[in-house]
Specification:
Oligomer: single chain
Radius of gyration: 21 Å
Strand order of the largest sheet: 1-2-3-5-7-8-9-10
Helix content: 25-40%
Shape: elongated
Number of domains: 2
CATH architecture of the largest domain: Alpha-Beta Horseshoe
Largest sheet: 8 strands, mixed
CATH class of the largest domain: Alpha Beta
CATH superfamily of the largest domain: Ribonuclease Inhibitor
Number of strands: 12
Length: 229
């Protein structure tokens, strides 16, 4: 179905539970985002869940829009320009789509000055990339909640570390840890335990301490753990 001006004009508008003026375009089999300029910049929330949309694109400038609900579509990529079009967006719901790689969502960083809440569960990327949350935090440093779970201090520190690498020129794909490289559970030797305790004493960040304490408690060693550093 095309998102025609008539469909937009006839769509229901109401105050949602958090008192946002919401435009509902849910469940209309929309394939392409278009003609949203007809809606004018009068809504704080747009619901486009459960359609057939493949690409997040074609938004006019909507300075009032705070919440965009895109769950249950077929989105595979986010086009550049979203940050310019939606400068005050703080909540983006993307769960149950078809996003697979970080390059597909790299342009989400254009929302870095505003986005605080993001959902991305039930996308292939979630199962494929084990450090997705820190990567998202690196791209969106103001994130407070991902998939309804608050961002921890340790995740913020990991995200900041990744962000520094990206700013120094490291390609985004190079910071990805694929889930296929699973952590290894080992029976720690006495020497290894002493080495871990020594590292723990020297740790300078909460993230480092949490990793080391986790290895000591469970024997599960992350694939990127460096015994020699």
């Amino acid at each position: 179905m095309r998102l025609t001006p008539e469909v937009i004009r006839d769509a229901p508008v109401y105050l949602n539970p958090i008192e946002q003026r919401e435009l509902s375009l849910r469940g209309k089999d929309i394939v392409v985002i278009e003609n949203l300029g007809v809606a004018k910049d009068v809504h704080e929330c747009i619901d486009m869940c459960n359609n057939q949309i493949v690409k997040l694109e074609n938004f006019p400038i909507m300075k009032r829009l705070e919440t965009l609900m895109m769950s249950g579509n077929k989105i595979v990529t986010i086009a550049p320009g979203l940050g310019k079009s939606l400068p005050n967006l703080h909540t983006l719901l993307l769960e149950n789509n078809q996003i697979r790689t970080v390059s597909d969502i790299e342009s989400i960083s254009e929302l870095s000055s505003s986005l605080t809440h993001l959902t991305i569960s039930s996308n292939p990327i979630v199962e494929m990339i084990s450090n997705l949350r820190p990567i998202l935090i690196a791209l969106l440093p103001k994130l407070k909640v991902i998939d309804y779970v608050r961002v921890t201090q340790a995740e913020q520190e990991l995200g900041a570390s990744i962000r520094n690498r990206l700013m120094s020129g490291t390609p985004l794909d190079s910071v990805v840890i694929l889930t296929s490289l699973k952590p290894v559970k080992v029976k720690l030797t006495g020497a290894q335990k002493k080495q871990l305790l020594k590292k723990l004493d020297a740790a300078s960040t909460l993230a480092e301490m949490e990793v080391l304490e986790g290895i000591l408690q469970t024997g599960i060693v992350p694939v990127d753990f460096d015994w020699d550093s």
